[in-house]
Amino acid sequence: MRKNDQVKVETAAEIYSKIKAKTMVVITALFFSSMILAFVSIFIKG
C-alpha cells in the first residue's frame, strides 16, 4: 500500500498522530483518576 516516495511523510504523520493519541490517553487517565479520588474522598467523609 505504501509508496517509497511517501514513507517520510507517512512516518511523520504517524508519529504526530501517536503523540496526540498518547497525550489524549494521559489526559483522560488523569481526569478519570481525579474523579475517582474525588468520589472516594466524598464517600470516606460521608
What pattern of helices and strands is seen along the backbone?
H
Content-based structural category:
mainly alpha
| Average of pLDDT | 87
Question: How large, in whole angstroms, is the Cα Rg?
Answer: 19 Å
The profile of the biggest β sheet is: none
Helix-residue proportion: over 70%
With helices defined by DSSP (H or I, 4 residues minimum), what is the helix count?
Answer: 1
Overall strand count: 0
Strand content: under 5%
List segments where confidence is low: pLDDT < 50 over at least 5 consecutive residues. none
Cα-to-Cα separation, first versus last residue: 59 Å
Shape: rod-shaped
Q: Which key terms come to mind for this protein?
A:
46 residues, mainly alpha, rod-shaped
Question: How would you characterize this protein structure?
Answer:
This protein is an all-alpha fold and 46 residues long. It has a domain at 17-46. It is built from one helix and no strands. The model has no long low-confidence stretch (mean pLDDT 87).
Detail the topology: elements first, then pairings.
Elements: H1 7-45
Structure at a glance:
The chain is mainly α and 46 residues long.
